[in-house]
Every structure is written in C-alpha cells, then in structure tokens.
Design goal:
Layout lengths: L1 H12 L8 E11 L8 E5 L2 E5 L7 H9 L7 E7 L5 H4 L7 E9 L2 H15 L4 E6 L10 E5 L4 E3 L4 H17 L8 E7 L2 E8 L4 E5 L5 H10 L3 E6 L15 E4 L15 E5 L4 H11 L7 E3 L3 H15 L9 E2 L11 H16 L32
Parallel strand pairs: 11-12, 11-14, 12-13, 14-15, 15-16
Antiparallel strand pairs: 1-2, 1-5, 2-3, 4-5, 6-7, 6-10, 7-8, 9-10
Helix pairs in contact: 1-4, 6-9, 7-8
Length: 387
C-alpha cells in the first residue's frame, strides 16, 4: 500500500511529471513464487528506479528496458515475466525464481496527476476509494482507470460506458466486503464485457495515535511513518508535547491530564498505543479509548498494573467493558525487545499483523511446499585452500 500512497504524494508534488518521461509499473497477477503481489507499484524515470518495487530486484532491469520502449502513441503495455521454465536461465530474465509476474507498464501523463489529486482528496477526508484499471493486453484502453469513492462520486479516464457500469456495479460489493476489515487493502480481477479489470480497495492510511510522548515514542513515530501511516502524539506535559521533539509526527497535541477524550477523534482506520508510563494517565487513556471500536489498542507497561487498569474499567462499565476497543497487553510481538527501538519494532509488527488478520507467526510455519526449512553446510572444496 505504501507504494500507492507514495505515488499519490508524488503526483501532488510533481505537477509537471507527465512531461519528464516517468513510467509506472504495476503488478497485476502472480503465479508461483513472487516477492510482491498485485497492486504493488514501481515508479521509473528514463529507466531509473525512483521508488517502489515489483520484485526483489530481479525484474527491475527488464522492466526499465521495457518502459523505455513506450512511445508517445503507446500509453501502456502488459508484460509477463515468466521464470517457471528452465530456459529462463538462458533466454529469459535469468532470475530462476520459479514464478510468473504479470506487470502493467504505463507512461505517466497529465491524467495521472489529476487522478492522484482526486484520490488524495478522498483519502485525506478519510474516505476509501475503489480504483479500477483496464488490464487485458488487447484492449485499446489498456491502463485507463476509473476511481469511485464511498459516496458514489466517480473519476474516469475510460470512455466505455459498459466498463463504467461494470465498475459501479461491483463497487458496492467490494466496499461491503471491506467493511469488516476497513484497514486492509484488497484487490480482485473481474471482466466487464471484453475488458479485464483490476479492482483495488484503497483505504485511508492507518492513523496511529500514541498517548505518551516520552523518549520511547520517537522510534515508534519513525517506524510508523516509514510505513506511510499518519501519526498523532498526545501528552499532558508541555515539555513532552513539543513538535520539535517529534518532528516526523503529523500532529503533536497537548491536553489536560485525564482529559484524553477531549482530543480523540478516531475513525475506523485508527489504532492506538498507550505509553505514558504513569498509572493514572494510562488508566485515563484506556478509559477514553474504550469508548471507540478500535481494532487495536496496545498498552506498554507493567502487566500487573495493566490488568488492574482493565479490571477497574470492567468493574466500572459492567457488561459494557471492552465493548469497543480491542486491547493488547503487553503490547508487541515477543521478539525479546530490550530497548525502545526493538520495542517499537515489536509493536508496529503486532499492529500490522492485527490489521492483516495474521497471528504474527514465523513464515516457516506456513504450509507452503517451497517454504521448507533447509540446513546448509559449508564444505571445503578440494584445492580451495592451496597457496
């Protein structure tokens, strides 16, 4: 998702990019082993990578060469990079990855800037967007796009009315499917007449609210911003609630002690972490966050103290306890964190796992035929140590 958010920001900050030979590569489909998935993007300028990725680095050179072949009268092309056969080592990309990656390569034009601006307005207003892209090779409108928001507003570069009607008909279904998991990007392909479409549900960026602006909040802000999240830090201490201490945060708010409800304005795309390291303030923050239906609220601090806070909240609210936020304590995945940087890593990883519907287990435990554990021994080759 960060690739797409970065692309939208790029369009806003480079209004004349359409005249400077930029190209976008988008993963459309994968089979077998693939490092990235459908919807991941790469921005290039004259064959040079600007940001993003569509592979682990093995396809970028080929994609750059193919992007240079786009002419002024060729808006887009779809290319399949297939490394599933043995001949790929000689005649293909020579990646030996054992997978197929289908990529849409298209020129950045003035319409790209306009589309980015339109989507940014909706995401900034915390409204999800459905983006549809024509992706079948033989369609004259390959690469053309339609965007629809939750209110039914539409932005289209597609001239075909049947395609527009098909996108609108499928918008409600995809948005409905995403209601239970509003933070999660999702995609699917569909057919509209003769056109094949990639449909993408684009949620607003995750909003992380950190309550407590101590020094251990700094690496948490930094890590969240690297993922493209919006970050708000709240504290009741003027010396801590200082934007100069937390320059990467989008907002740093000063509030009165015990008065977190006065500044909290969460939405379905909001998660939070409580880390004031003060029993009374933690309790006040937890009570304020419990009013909202948040998918994740992490609490950093002594486990016994946290359990007392939650028990008090349950006693106060009775059967309504924990009816809103989902609390995680101690916050973070168990990685043996021993410093603020490692703690921030464990917390961000846990939040990402929750939003993705995962448990945070090791990838080697996934049941995949190519994900077997392999023991490697280093052997001394005959003659290798000769002087």
């Amino acid at each position: 998702m960060k690739d797409l958010y970065d692309l939208i920001k790029f369009g806003l900050t480079h209004p004349d990019a359409w005249s400077e030979n930029y190209a976008i590569a988008t993963v459309l489909h994968t089979e077998g082993h693939a490092y990235r998935r459908a919807g991941d993007r790469l921005l290039l300028k004259k064959g040079r990578k600007i940001f993003g990725a569509v592979s682990g680095g093995c396809l970028e050179e080929s994609i750059a060469a193919d992007s240079d072949r786009l002419s002024s009268d060729l808006h887009a092309r779809r290319v399949d990079y297939d490394s599933r056969s043995a001949s790929d080592l000689i005649w293909g990309t020579a990646t030996d990855c054992g997978g197929l990656v289908s990529v849409l390569i298209q020129r950045w034009d003035a319409g790209s800037n306009n589309l980015c601006g339109w989507i940014d307005e909706r995401l900034s207003a915390r409204r999800p967007v459905l983006l549809a892209t024509v992706i079948n090779k033989d369609d004259q409108q390959l690469g053309r796009q339609i965007a629809v928001d939750t209110s039914g507003e539409i932005f289209s570069h597609v001239d075909s009315l049947p395609i527009q009607a098909a996108v609108m008909a499928r918008t409600a279904d995809l948005l409905s499917e995403s209601t239970g998991k509003p933070n999660r990007y999702s995609h699917r392909t569909c057919v509209a007449g003769r056109a094949e479409l990639l449909l993408e549900y684009i949620p607003p960026p995750t909003s992380l609210v950190i309550i407590g602006a101590g020094d251990d909040a700094l690496p948490l802000v930094d890590g969240a911003k690297r993922l493209g999240w919006n970050v708000t830090v709240i504290d009741h201490r003027p010396a801590y609630a200082d934007h100069q201490r937390l320059p990467l945060a989008d907002r740093v708010l000063l509030t009165q002690a015990d008065s977190y409800s006065d500044v909290l304005r969460p939405d379905p795309w909001t998660v939070s972490i409580v880390m004031t390291h003060n029993w009374r303030q933690d309790a006040a923050a937890v009570a304020a966050l419990a009013q909202f239906d948040l998918p994740y609220v992490g609490i950093i601090g002594n486990t016994t103290r946290t359990e007392k806070i939650l028990a008090m909240l349950a006693a106060r609210n009775g059967s309504r306890s924990r009816a809103g936020a989902s609390f995680y304590h101690p916050a973070g995945l168990d990685i043996g964190a021993r410093n603020p940087e490692e703690t921030a890593l464990s917390v961000i990883a846990e939040i990402q796992a929750v939003l993705s519907g995962r448990q945070g287990a090791s990838l080697k435990h996934q049941e995949r035929p190519h994900a077997k554990s392999i023991n490697i021994r280093f052997l001394k080759l005959a003659g290798a140590d000769r002087r």
